[in-house]
């Protein structure tokens, strides 16, 4: 009934809705919602005033109405000219002595299109309601999408009689368990959120914390001196983990330029696959894995898939380990490997869980043997060093032209610095024999010569 009556009222004005002007606050404290002022908010409506102005035409044939909504009817009152002020150039009309929760409809003649048109603009004056309470569900298991209820709710009604809720901006400050750099820690979080009757936090609280909520509409727009509302402590049931990986192996890998020795975990398997190239690809890799979960976790499940299972994201039947951390887990097969960590909290017949994923690609074995090096102390090619991927065993012997062995090593990560028995070896040709085995079972026997060159003594 309300909508129909007000719609008939506007139809009676034969108004072509025009927004060629702007609403503005001219006195007191208020909030304008933009060029089309659906509503204007005042700390105290009776002490405020507002204007509608246009710089493109005069407000001729001006009629102003005050509209109120009741339970059963809509009242429309034509204002007398003494109740508003029209500027000398007839381009601005100002209203004083405002009434709260009241609509103001301004009807005027628009000649800007070459003919006379009845036009109108409308705004609703709302009296500000300070934030009085903030609450959250209690005795309820919440695993994600944490919502804070805010009250009271402010409303306005538009020119069609539809009641709309007004969004207010609040600042929410709380403590949380978050990842900072490589390791998580307790951090203070501040979020600015908009909501009518509630706000949803961007990050679920993963530790017990109260919430400090400040009404930013009151503080920043109405310039009121407001104190934050501090809630009771929220006791979380949500779980989270920020897994971290360290490599521990005799064969620390040279890797490719731009790759990382830290295995990064993601909340989606697809994202883990997309970032697979960022991790060094040479095997074998011995992993130490740490879950770094919050205190609510009481169950850990690491699943390791490789090959086709990893590519398909199928962790059913994969090798599974139950424990907070894993030490000395070796990965060597040349294929894709993916890790899924599921942490959960099983209490009172309810479960919150959180999954993290990491993927890496072990390359097929390869050896790269240079043919010269220059041990002259310039830090450029100063050692004879073998490049490699996925080598699990290695042995090298280097001989001079008289058959003396000048260097021997089973550590592929180290190289010959061009010395023999503490003295600089002579420049010239040397001969090497390399025996190696890849993680893929490939065996290598390489023989060849290497030139020792010194351009500066």
Number of strands: 36
N-to-C terminal Cα separation, in Å? 101 Å
- CATH fold-level label of the largest domain: Immunoglobulin-like
General shape: elongated
By secondary-structure content and strand pairing, the structural class works out as mainly beta
Mean pLDDT, to the nearest integer, reads: 88
What does the model show?
It is a single chain. With 457 residues, the protein is mostly beta strands. The chain folds into four domains: 2-127, Immunoglobulin-like (Sandwich); 133-230; 244-361, Immunoglobulin-like, CATH 2.60.40; 366-452, Immunoglobulin-like (Sandwich). It contains four helices and 36 strands. The chain has helices at 2-12, 216-221, 269-274, 307-312; strands at residues 16-17, 22-27, 30-32, 39-42, 49-53, 60-69, 74-78, 84-86, 92-95, 102-110, 117-127, 133-135, 147-151, 154-157, 163-166, 168-180, 183-195, 198-200, 212-215, 229-230, 244-247, 285-290, 299-306, 319-321, 325-331, 336-347, 350-361, 366-368, 372-373, 387-389, 391-399, 405-409, 419-420, 423-424, 428-438, 443-452. The strands form ten sheets. Strands 1, 3, 4, 6, 7, 10 and 11 form a seven-stranded mixed sheet that branches. A five-stranded mixed sheet has the order 29-36-35-31-32, with no helix packed on it. A hairpin with a 2-residue loop joins strand 26 and strand 27 (350-361). The protein starts with a helix and ends in a 5-residue tail after the last strand. The model is unreliable at 1-8 and 10-19 (pLDDT under 50).
